[in-house]
Amino acid sequence: MRTAVVTVAHGRHDHLACQRESLAAATVPPDHHVVVAIDDPVLAGSGRCSASLPATPLGLPLAAARNLGARIALGLGAGVLVFLDVDCLAGPGLVEAYADAVESDPSTVWSGPVTYLDPPPGTGYDLAALPGLDSPHPARPAPAPGERLHDADPDLFWSLSFACSAAAWRRSGGFCEDYVGYGGEDTDFGRVLVEDGLELGWLGAARAYHQFHPVSRPPVEHVDDIVRNAAIFRRRWGHTPMLGWLREFERLGLVKVDEDGRWHTLG
């Protein structure tokens, strides 16, 4: 089956260029790299992307952009869809491992371990040295290379790095586009997959490496998105996600929760 990597990007042009280098250096490069620019006229006009979307009044349409990228990949004849965050470098065997797993078990949606890298040296990251930096994020499963874990927790699904068959993608219907901006759509998609009778698994050989960039903890610049998207998730699934962030926002005086358990921004 043909394999397409789907990446959505808003800025992060250097990170995208490094990601492209990592894909070109893979043991088995993808047949297609579908890049969807979001509110990024420089990238949209560069010839390096397949499509673009504008921002909405509420923020960046990340879910819609991933769905658009998938439609383009399917139109190119891809049978394996690999979704890779723009900040992620592909480990040498990531594409090959995902393709093998999807072909052997097309009803499972596979995720791979992701290592968060320290800032690069002045010369940039050495792609050949990435395996020596391997230290997957402790909040997610991290099977060893060659190991597969089945029946994964949908609440731990994330869109940094995952892959599925074309049939599984069509069966899922893609990401819920009610979500705009940061937060919630990953966990929602994990729930949708399980509801649709698909399996979730973790694939040790599909290792990715997240390039460094500064972050806020908690992500206060996304407070409006997180409160709004948490309400959408609650409406769809009956409970509130991202409670750790919401409680941190509450501690900072940015949000409050009412007697019905609904969160609201202040100010």
UniProtKB/TrEMBL annotation:
Q: Which Pfam families match?
A: Glyco_transf_7C (PF02709)
Name the InterPro entries on file.
Galactosyl_T_C, Nucleotide-diphossugar_trans
Q: In which pathway does it act?
A: Cell wall biogenesis; cell wall polysaccharide biosynthesis
Taking every annotated instance into account, which residue ranges of this chain make up the domain Galactosyltransferase C-terminal? 161-212
The record's keywords, sorted A to Z, are: Glycosyltransferase, Transferase
- Family indicated by similarity: Belongs to the glycosyltransferase 2 family.
Full protein name? Glycosyltransferase family 2 protein
